[in-house]
Amino acid sequence: MRTVVAVVMTAALATACGGGSPDESPGSTTAGTRPQPQALVAGTGSTTTALRLYQAYYGMAPSYSVQQTNASMVAIDGGATLSRQLANELSALSDTALAARVLTNLRTSPVSVNSTSYEILATAVAQIFAAYGSQFRGQIVLNLINILATLETDAVYGNAARAFNNQVTANGSYSGNSLNTSSSSTVRTSSWTSYYNDCFVGTPAMYTTTYCQAYASAREVGASATTANLQGALAAGGNVGNIGTGQVVTSTGTSVSGSTSGSTSGSTSGSTSGSTSGSTSGSTSGSTSGSTSGSTSGSTSGSTSGSTSGSTSTGGRSGSVNWTSSFSADELIEDSSTLAANARKGWTFTISNASAPMEVIFAAQYTADLYIVDSGSLNACVNGGSFNYYSSWSFQGQYGYQSMTIPPGSYGLCMANRVNRSNATRLEFQRQPTVSGFHYSGQRFATVVRNVNAGGRVTQPATSGSNYRVIVDGGNTGGTFYVIPASEQSNFLAGRTFQYYTTIDCSSGRAAPGLCELTGVGEYAIAYYNDTSDPQSIVIVGRDYVPD
Fold first, then answer.
1. What angle do helix axes 46-58 and 137-148 make, rounded to 10 degrees?
2. N or C terminus of the chain with fewer C-beta within 10 Å?
3. Backbone phi, psi, residue 432, to 5°
4. pLDDT in tens, 12-22
5. In what helix (H) or strand (E) does residue 7 lie, and over which residues does it extend?
6. Which domain holds residue 34?
7. Of 375, 403, 431, the domain-final residue
8. pLDDT digit string (tens) for 450-462?
9. Per residue in 482-493, is it b (16+ CB within 10 Å) or e — as a string?
């Protein structure tokens, strides 16, 4: 039901923009051949529409004078001119980057809506931007805010809609005060403030500002008190408390691993054809039943690394920066297993000295679980017993990409095949990549997490610019990857002869697309072809790095 609602919202957005066949490739029709996007009636005053648009693009409350000017513009044509102007101010952003920015500012995320619906919407908005061209970005965003604002009672988007509308109301109080002469990104809603005060005011010292801010942000978008406390603990790097649970507030809390009790039950049969990316929250309880097999093995270590060469032009980039410096991701566990029916497998690993920024790339052909547990719980997981696990770092019936910061300690990874048939998997557990002389600045595109039917083809465009580097990573359960010029996407998707780069090495087999760089300045696409006879799963991650 939730997936259907996401599709309906996407369809409404596309319909407002002139429509198009669901099977049509965004790049196959230019903006000039499509009907111009039509405005949705806002149904609100110019003041509210102006505030919504500023929040959508900038995630903040405008100053008093800016708001007065914006509202005057909206009063003339309902917001079309203002939205186009704000979109032009962000014209340097790619379609994917702008989609991610706007959706974040609209309070839509895997926390406020389910992961499947969020991925569908994020992908659709980026594709619609691409299909219509930059000249229609403003109208598309205007349509989007007018849709979301009406969905407060929706089962999927209600939390995001309420949080967005509450933020707009709070922004209005700020921007309506003539004493506020600058824009502000710290305007809090009354609900956020109430949750924060419940956590911070008069409670024990363990509930720090960082803890309570994360707690309030999670509660504001609909998370339960239990989940919000876990988010607070992860943000603060401390124990999990019990604010808002109706119990006497604890002064010490429990460890992150002790905050959720999880186990799997029984084996399932069949397969899934879809997936979501990101982490799951919550836990399952009870003990495991049924036969499982598998064993734990020692931790593995190693690293993946690379450096760019002169294979692609670096034209247009500053000569004072070493644009070909090395990059790497220290790999703790790498595995390309095909698990037998209902089988399990485990590994141990240790984080020493200080908390480490880690990430997981996990792909499974059919339904599977991946748990991060304390080392003492690993045997129980592998052998089908009851065990505790870190819910926000684990995947239950899902796969994709997840980043986290793990404190020092001994841990385990437990993989469980949830179907009564063999299941191809790919696992990369590694430190988050580092690039010499550069630092991470953001996602190049929304993480691609797909289950692709036999014979299917997928492309993900990616622009490499003059002031940043693009590092790609991922994994798959079968099929072939290429890096191609963006102009070759239509040929590739149609099964025609296409050109691809032989000098950009993004690995092969299940490791593809391995840690690699889209070198130089150019328009690329990561292309995948399922040339097997079975459905396969893929994960593609793209990140930008800018000079230090």
1. 110
2. N
3. -60, 140
4. 454 444 433 33
5. helix 2-16
6. 2-175
7. 431
8. 988 889 999 999 9
9. bbbbeebbeebb
